[in-house]
Write a structure and sequence with these properties.
The chain is built from two helices and eight strands. By secondary structure, the protein is an alpha+beta fold. The chain has one domain. The protein has a four-stranded mixed β-sheet, with no helix packed on it. The N and C termini lie far apart (52 Å). The mean pLDDT is 88.
Length: 133
């Protein structure tokens, strides 16, 4: 009988613990942001971008209460590529940053030379990890 009570108690404790978990990715709010031209980025960040631009990268940079989120998609065969921000939002445990690489349209004239699309986004600093998607 005690074994049965202990087993039922253990199951109830386990189930109650599972029911109070929250979804860590649940959006609390969208973050306002500004797309920053590479030339207007802080000097320290420009140095890092110069070193990383030839390959794929994802990085964060903080300066004077501002958070810079940077993504580079590596070498592309032509010009005409851009990067879209799909979402930038705050959850309970992290900042989520979702972007997409957009290729040139079929009507667009492109240079047949490698390009290295990258994006720099500035937002307010929040002391949470950033998840790039």
């Amino acid at each position: 009988m005690w074994k049965r009570i202990l087993l039922i108690g253990s199951i109830l404790i386990f189930l109650s613990g599972c029911s109070i978990q929250t979804n860590e990715r649940e959006k609390l709010k969208d973050l306002e942001y500004t797309i920053v031209e590479e030339e207007k980025a802080p000097e320290g960040l420009k140095t890092i971008l110069d070193e990383k631009r030839m390959g794929e990268f994802k990085l964060t940079y903080e300066e004077e209460g501002q958070l810079y989120l940077c993504i580079g998609y590596g070498p592309q065969n032509t010009s005409g590529y851009s990067i879209a921000v799909n979402e930038l939002y705050l959850s309970e445990n992290a900042i989520y940053f979702d972007t997409s690489l957009i290729g040139p349209s079929k009507e667009e004239q492109v240079a047949e030379a490698q390009s290295y699309p990258l994006l720099v986004v500035q937002t307010e600093y929040v002391d949470k990890p950033v998840v790039f998607q």
